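Worked Example 4.2. Consider the chain below.
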Amino acid sequence: MSGQAALELRAFGGTELRVTPLCFGAGPLGDRNMREIHTYGVPEERALATIRALFASPINFLDTAAFYGDGESERRIGLVIRERGGLPPGFVLATKVDRDLGSGDFSADQVRRSAERSLRLLGLDRLQVLHLHDPELARQDFAELCGPGGAVEALQRLKEDGLVQAIGIAGGPVALMTRFVDTGVFDALITHNRFTLLSRAAEPLIALAAQRGLAVLNAAPYASGILARGSDAFPLYAYRRAPPAVVERAREIEAVCREHGVPLAAAALQRSLRDARITSTIVGMTRPERIAETLALAAHPIGDEVWARLDALVLPGDPFEQG
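Applying the procedure from the previous section yields the following structure tokens:
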């Protein structure tokens, strides 16, 4: 896949939106999330410089959430949007409504409060894409979230009222995400950490969402770092310490990449990019130079022999839920 081909615009499900196969993940710009997971933060000026570099790059798609830094990611993005006088032409911004972080409440009222705060922090009067985020962590169960007067209905109402162009579901557990996709109300799906060099747990979910015509977004292709920096430098898998079986398999993957002169991060990123069912791959970035580096990783040549060996190393099941 060449760098140019990687940035051809793709249809965002059945909507009129068009996005690049690479999506800038703004979770790390929330600062607090980075400190909790990686023990270091992202200073504001560096965050703003990174967002400016993104808007000047070939990538036209950004993903954030109310949860990231409890609004800090959205606030920083909003500063640059205001500085520019608006989003660049053709740029697509996606954010997510979140539960109340104190009580776990994910009621219809909470959806509206979260969306209103996002609009205020971003300095926008309309959202292109809005996801229901991490419903597995909500106080309400699936039936309550999807029932009359619930969170999903509130999200649909925001779309009907013209405040949101497309709505999505974003979360982790494959079985639960499948139930949400099966409702037929969503335009997009985000799955994370479950379609990587280490795991294909999200395979049936991705297949279902693609069959139903949803935009499929694959987040965390580096599995929170172990597939970017390596198992010795960063033995975390999906935001927590990696189980021994995962570390061992990651080392085997690293060995294959070294043998063929392929950067580990290039293989991890391209594993997602080369799947035609995946509309866009979300990659967290924390510095301006990471944008060009990510584009280079997406364009690095990787032969069929390497892919055959890497595909044979996928772990069975869902290591995230087993760990």
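Confidence is low (pLDDT under 50) at residues 1-6. The domain at 3-318 is CATH 3.20.20.100 (TIM Barrel). Compare this with Example 4.1 before moving on.
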